[in-house]
Amino acid sequence: MNTQTIITGLLTSILATILAGYTAASNSPLMSWRWTCALVAVFTLCATISTGLHKQFDISGSLSKASGCLGRLNALELAARMGFRSREEISKECEEIAVQYPDYIG
Contact 11/50 with Cβ under 8 angstroms? Predict the structure, then answer.
């Protein structure tokens, strides 16, 4: 969803800019003025919604946090398998991870 919202926002912004820029530069719309303005409005609306969704859902931040959580869990698993830490230390760190990442630990 992250890539889709970014690409949608970029493409619709580009299309709106090209259509509006061409119309302004040539002083003649590709279609009637009414349709040209309506199409530019639809493109900018789509770009705005797409950008808003991307920001609202904080997709990049969520991916970053999930990656951090996974990295800590993988390091903890490796330490447990290799016997680098006691059960108490592993248990304590599991609790810390669960507190730090409550959205990702069920």
Answer: no
Q: What is the pTM of this model?
A: 0.57
Q: What is the pLDDT of residues 74-104, one digit of tens each?
A: 999 999 999 888 999 999 999 999 999 998 8
Q: How far is CA 70 from CA 45, 63, 74, 86, in A?
A: 37, 10, 6, 21
Within a 10 A sphere around the Cβ of 33, how many other Cβ atoms? 10
Burial class (CB in 10 A: 0-12, 13-18, 19+), 56: exposed
On whether the CB atoms of residues 39 and 50 are closer than 8 A, the answer is no
For 35-55, b/e burial (b = at least 16 CB within 10 A) is: ebeebbeebbebbeebbeebe
Give the number of other CB atoms < 10 A from CB of residue 72. 16
